[in-house]
Automatic annotation (TrEMBL):
Organism of origin: Campylobacter blaseri
Keyword field contains Chloroplast: no
Chain coiled-coil ranges: none
Keywords per UniProt: Membrane, Transmembrane, Transmembrane helix
Ranges annotated as spanning the membrane: 6-33, 53-75, 101-119, 139-158, 190-208, 215-237, 257-280, 292-313
Domain of life: Bacteria
Name listed for the protein in its UniProt record: Uncharacterized protein
Keyword Membrane attached: yes
Amino acid sequence: MLVLTPFIMTLLIVEGIIVFFGFIAFIFSIKIYKKYNFNENTSYQYNLAKQGYLVSIIVFFILCIKLPLFLFFVWSMDVVSSLIPGAMCAAGIVDATDYGIYMFIFKILNLFFLSGWLLINYEDSKTKNSSFLKTKFKFFIPIFILLALEFLLEFLHFSGISLTEPVLCCSDIFKANDLGELKLWHTDKFILSIFYLFFILNFISAYYKADLLISIFSLLFMLSAIYAIIRFFSPYIYELPTHKCPFCMLQSDYGYIGYPIYILIYLGAVPGFFIFILELLNVKIEECWYKISMYANLALVGILSYFPLAYYIKNGVWL
């Protein structure tokens, strides 16, 4: 079983430790959310405030581990793909069971939610009376449930993969024939139109500090970028028209270009999420979030646009 390989065992052990500490934070979060009252000056409330400080440290520890662990998770899936018949990259591992895609989605969602929690914690630390103490612990309650679900899906997924049963490779998962159907949303014109349109709208929203719009367009641009990578840009990265895999670009054969691409997608999208949270908290939004959004997305568009342009200049044709 794949779950017994050193990389996956390491991953599950670390995730198990995270869930364990998260459970401690979860219990304290419920207690603090229900019983903390800033207006009561008693020793019990003072102890609750101290417990809140402990929980904040635990959640900070969880995020500090989760961010690099996500990169280790992606790298590990790529490495163990050599052990599974048929798998050529992490795509074959993700697709190996029905739990894989949901596990991957939960991992990404949890990164955003934990980042949002730390933002609230940071804003709370700037207030004299811990204005957002109950808010941040209320927010952590559903986050822990998502973390526990992610761990459960991860265990079910990896324990369900055999080392002898073949899985689909990325070429079968992202079949060019299926992707090439002449439906509007499959055409290059449509894919590139929404990709560049949402980038421009997001950039303008950030430039003029239109908070609600940047929150919306950040999400739409992130989704359109992932869609465009799979259906349009990946063949130019691989210089092969039938290769439409979003994972192979993480391999050394392609200079690990996938890592900066996906990190830029995260850096470009998370400011929009942060601005949405800061609007709900009704606090001042710092200038840096707008700049991070603009620069990260600009760099992403520049990198992705380079590949088809370079291919056309070199070969004189489009794929």
